[in-house]
Amino acid sequence: MGSGRGGWLMSEKERYRVEGSPGAERSQRAPAETAHDVAVRDITLPSRRSFFVRASAVLIGGIVSLFPLAAGLFTFLDPLRPRKGAQRRDSGGSAMDDEGFVDVTTLEALPEDGTPQLFQIIADRKDAWTFIPNQPIGAVYLRKEGDDVIAFSVACPHAGCAVDFDPVEREFECPCHRSSFTLAGERSGDSPSARNLDRLNVKNEEGRVKVRYQNFRTGVAEQIPE
Q: Average of pLDDT values for 143-163?
């Protein structure tokens, strides 16, 4: 029996050594997670979820931003389109009319002897991007000639400098290149200007003098609006 019991014990030991402990088979089939594995799993899963959330937010934001982008592109391609009902005002507070005339002064403010008077044109600057109220857009000389009012742009047609009026010589003079013009706005002497002073449209409405101000191309013989 000793040998039988010993043989049985050896058989159990050998079997234990060969088969291992009861949990060995489970350990081989499903190894236990280490601390590193748990950390990687906890980081990876939220990271994937965050990626999809961010990607969805970017996609939705891109679609929504297309609408103002399209509107901005339309404005950029047509920045100076007229605004229906938009008005500009001079410093006197009267609106520029549909024809572009600005109320400048009263008829009584002009001397009867025809001496030119200098007036600044004040109006709102407005386009598709900006609105700046009460800005100087130019200046004009106004003078009476009988029952009419004559308006000259202050800009010299030669290079655009502002001309002065000499009350002694009774003529307009440009300080930049010495162009000179008669009281009627015509070139005089050896004036380097290619044309006479630029006349502007004027109308008299109930004693108010209104001018349609505009700029013209300089350095050319023809009066070409800019």
A: 95
Q: What percent of the chain has pLDDT over 70?
A: 56
pLDDT digits (tens, 9 = 90+) for 23-43: 444 445 555 556 555 444 554
Task: Please report whether residue 85 resides in a domain.
Answer: no
Domain count, the chain: 2
Distance between CA atoms of 3 and 26, rounded to whole angstroms? 34
**In a domain? residue 88:** no
Question: Are 73 and 176 within one domain?
Answer: no
State whether 160 and 206 are in the same domain.
yes
Spatial distance between the Cα atoms of 126 and 86, rounded to a whole number of angstroms: 9
b/e map 96-115, b = 16+ CB within 10 Å:
beeeebbbbbeeeebeeeee
CA atoms of 143 and 70, how far apart (whole Å) = 50
d(CA 68, CA 48): 32
Residues facing 37 on adjacent strands: none
Range of the domain at 192: 101-212
d(CA 66, CA 225): 39
Does 7 or 97 have the greater pLDDT score? 97
Q: Tabulate helix, strand, coil % of the chain (nearest 5).
A: 30, 30, 40
Q: In a 10 Å sphere around its CB, with 0-12 CB exposed, 13-18 middle and 19+ buried, how is residue 95 labelled? A: middle
| Cβ-based neighbour number of residue 164 at 10 Å | 14
Same domain membership, residue 72 and residue 109: no
DSSP letter assigned to residue 197 = P
